Amino acid sequence: MQRRDYLVRMIEEMTEILGKVFGLKQERKFTEALWQLDDLYKKQFRLSNDLLRSLSAKDIVEIFHTGGKLEADKLQNLAYLMKEEGDLLIAAGQQDEGTFTLMKSLHLYLTAAQGGADRTLWKLDDQIGELNVLLNKYRLPKETEQLRLQYEEAAGRYGRAEDILYIMLQEQWITKEEALAFYERLLQLDEATLSQGGLPIEEVHEALQELRNIN
Predict the structure, then answer these.
(1) What span, in angstroms and rounded, lies between the C-alpha atoms of 86 and 154?
(2) Which of 67, 107, 163, 190 has its CA 20 to 30 A from that of 73?
(3) Beta bridge partners of 154
């Protein structure tokens, strides 16, 4: 209960500042809006905007490990702020920087989801869905694609998981054996579950056969 209360207070503080950021964005005062976010990063996480931009998503995740345990909800809060920053940078005409920030946000969200974050705090799954759409035309880093594959499979969206699997195979980010294991896991499920997940059992068998024929 104390943990939940702490998170709610944290979110209330963030929401107040984000309201100011939204107003500045509407007025096209992008620099001032970014300053507000920087202050929020420092207050909530003791991290600066410049530091977050210099670190990889993987390095940021490491900061949120305490005693070997991931602070998943705090990471989710940061992911939310970085999504807001990415949108703001793109609106300000900084497309590349904004896109990189959105990629980091997606990675943090996926890690938080895997780490048991409370999915109701910021509607975590909706946030991930929005980021997937925004970043659809970009090639994501290997580590983020790995997280996306795990996320979609765990959610029972097997067709989407397969799409990510093919990307990783093309980039040689996953071995033939790992891909085979994916389909073999699916064969443990019933036909109705596979169909609901967008990957009928016939397609699973076909994909397995194609993979096995690759030398």
Answers:
(1) 27
(2) 163
(3) none
Question: Mean pLDDT across the stretch 6-23?
Answer: 87
User: What pLDDT, on a 0 to 100 scale, did the predictor assign at position 23?
Assistant: 96
pLDDT surpassing 80 at residue 86: yes
pLDDT at 5 over 80: no
- Please give the pLDDT value at position 13: 86
Contact 123, 83 (CB under 8 A): no
Q: What angle do CA 25, 31, 36 make, to 5 degrees?
A: 75
Q: How far apart are CA 129 and CA 107, in angstroms?
A: 12
How far is Cα 96 from Cα 89, in angstroms, rounded to an integer? 9
- 112 and 72 in contact (C-beta within 8 Å)? yes
- Closest to 145 in 3D by CA, of 169, 120, 112: 169
CA dihedral 133, 136, 140, 142 (to 10 degrees): 90
| Residue 69: closest CA among 61, 78, 57, 77 | 61
Mean pLDDT value across the chain: 94
